[in-house]
Amino acid sequence: MNLPVTQLPIGGIEIDDSLQPRSDGLSEDHVLALLETPEDWPPIMVAHVDGVNVLIDGFHRYEAGRRLGYESIAAKIFYPDQNTDLFRIAFSLNIQHGRPLTRRDRNAYAAHVLQRHPELSDREIGRRCGLHHETVGAIRNRRATFRATEHKPGALPGEVGLLDPIRRAKATRAQKSIAGYVARLAVALGDPYEAGSSLDRWPDDPAEVAQACVAAMGIKRARETLHNVALDAQFMLNVAKSAQVILREAS
User: Fold this and answer.
1) 8-state DSSP, 54
2) Please, how many CA atoms are within 13 Å of residue 46, restricted to the half-sphere of its CB?
3) Tens of pLDDT along 162-173?
4) Other Cβ atoms within 10 Å of 133 Cβ, number
């Protein structure tokens, strides 16, 4: 956006975490790096909404400026229309600079776009989010297959139209059970990456996940649980590889 740069009082900027396109929130390492080079910061971006300046782009710069004790910070201000999708703007600005957005961030934005514009094609949403259209299709199918229910992290939500009705009628009872479990497992594994997930934060560092398990379960139970997860995950990986062979032969 070609807007003039002005100095805004830091204390007068409103922070709305729902507009933060990064699923893991602020990176402490990135904030510390910014503290070393304040002269190189580009201006932040804020939206003037109902008399309030809401931060859209520059969450790390804002935090670094606050820690440095700045009273004001260089900013660009725009005045959005009432129905403007501020999260879309935040995502588009963040994808252009700074730390690369993770796949989780892109998946969350794809879910956001699907919610607001389900009429868009998977390819168009993929173009906007930087995702392959098949990934967008999987997110769309997951949203359509399962009803939106409040559940604890890791809990499996109820399903609606779990399987193709024609194929389901021909499948055996055991096959239906297996397919249903795999479909629910896919949703459970994707839960931390969905927009609006009940998880406050899902770390990118596997060691942090392991540490959380040790802290909550104890060493013995965490070791047994994660060992079983590793075995089961390897099996499911082999299932996915077998599915690729079956799909190639069927096409």
Assistant:
1) E
2) 27
3) 556 666 667 787
4) 14
CA-nearest of 105, 117, 118 to 144 is 118
Q: What span, in angstroms and rounded, lies between the C-alpha atoms of 231 and 240?
A: 15
Residue that the structure tokens 């942090």 belong to: 208
End-to-end CA distance of the chain: 47
Which residues have C-beta within 8 Å of that of residue 116, sequence separation ≥ 6? 85
Name the token pair of 74: 């260089």
Q: What is the pLDDT of residues 52-111, one digit of tens each?
A: 999 999 999 999 999 999 999 999 999 988 788 888 888 888 777 666 787 878 888 888
> How long, in residues, is the chain?
251
Distance CA 6, CA 197 (A): 36
pTM: 0.53
The structure tokens listed for 132 are: 């392959």
Give the CA distances from residue 238 to residues 3, 187, 232, 233, in Å, rounded to whole numbers and listed in that order. 53, 19, 10, 9
* Residue 72 to residue 240: CA distance in whole angstroms: 53
Single-letter amino acid, residue 245: V
